[in-house]
Amino acid sequence: MPGRRRTPCWSHHSHVAIRQGAGIRFAKTSRILAELAGGHADRTWDKRIRELIRPGLLALDGFAMRRLTAPQADDLYELFSERRNRC
Hints:
Elements: H1 6-19, E1 24-28, H2 29-42, H3 45-53, E2 57-61, H4 70-86
Parallel strand pairs: 1-2
């Protein structure tokens, strides 16, 4: 049963983040990647990445469940790098 062991862990981290006043976003990795790909298509990628950088906690469900394309890997790298640099 995938995900059953991780749920309590994310739940705990979510509660801690909320207590510290941080925003939280939980999404499937595939949806985040589709959102960023759409940003490339309509030239709103910068706006979309800024929206993903904003929350204090970004939980990606299904991360590394599928092989990534080169553009998807680049988008995730940019997302992680930008989130790390904002701290």
